[in-house]
Design a protein that fits this description.
It comes from Natronorubrum halalkaliphilum. The strands form 2 sheets. The protein has a 6-stranded antiparallel β-sheet. The longest helix is centred in the middle third of the chain and has 13 residues. The chain has 5 helices and 11 strands. By secondary structure, the chain is of the alpha/beta class.
């Protein structure tokens, strides 16, 4: 199997239908918040894992949800009950091996500025990682998060306790999302993570409010 084998250190529930996997950091893995990896696994029994048929391998991209990658790093996985990979990942107990490639991506946070992280659904992983990295570096952080079933609420509450401005909105609250983005337009480098409809709305809101969406760092999950 291609990629670097890494150990799954732990799996924990971080929200409804959502888990976080803590993975062993490979050698020379120099990733920063905002980047993503390609995870490869064989989510069923095979006779010889050393010579597995590539047709048996399932691959998915996951954005880092940890602020650092020193010894381990984290990815956040939304569980699709009908999916080929996420239910298997959610049922791991630690000690198993998966393969990763990367890091990939040019949407990065270098701990050099105040930030406004706008997240829709699964975008909360990179958003909370960037916000934590900003606070760790002495910068201000804003998180605007839209989801009917929020994940990583403990980390978001900890950020709020540390002085971050955290706004959590219902999934259909477009007016609230527009108001939150407009209200924090000048508060730092804007990041946006989510599916196409979400990030398109965020970009249009930035432009309508007099900002420049081309200056925002936007990751479209498709």
């Amino acid at each position: 199997m291609e990629g670097t084998p890494v150990t799954v250190e732990s799996v924990r529930e971080v929200g409804p239908g959502t888990v976080a996997l803590e993975l062993e950091t490979p050698e020379a893995f120099d990733a920063v918040p905002g980047q993503f990896v390609l995870l490869r696994a064989v989510p069923w029994d095979v006779d010889d894992e050393e010579n597995v048929d590539e047709d048996d391998v399932v691959m998915r991209h996951y954005t880092l949800s940890s602020a650092s990658v020193e010894e381990t790093f984290e990815i956040t996985v939304g569980i699709d009950p009908e999916g080929d990979l996420s239910p298997w990942l959610a049922n791991l107990e630690g000690g198993e091996t998966v393969h990763v490639e990367g890091p990939f991506g040019t949407i990065t946070y270098e701990r050099d500025d105040h930030i406004v992280a706008v997240a829709g659904g699964p975008g909360v992983g990179p958003a909370v990682a960037i916000a934590e990295a900003a606070h760790d570096s002495g910068h201000d952080a804003v998180v605007v998060y839209q989801d009917d079933e929020p994940a990583h609420t403990e980390r978001l509450e900890a950020l709020e306790d540390d002085g971050a401005d955290v706004v959590i909105l219902d999934e259909d609250d477009r007016d609230g999302l527009a108001e939150a983005v407009e209200g924090h337009l000048e508060d730092g480098q804007i990041y946006a993570f989510g599916f196409e409809d979400f990030v398109t709305f965020v970009a249009e809101t930035i432009d309508d409010a007099g900002g420049d969406s081309d200056e925002a760092l936007i990751e479209n999950f498709g």
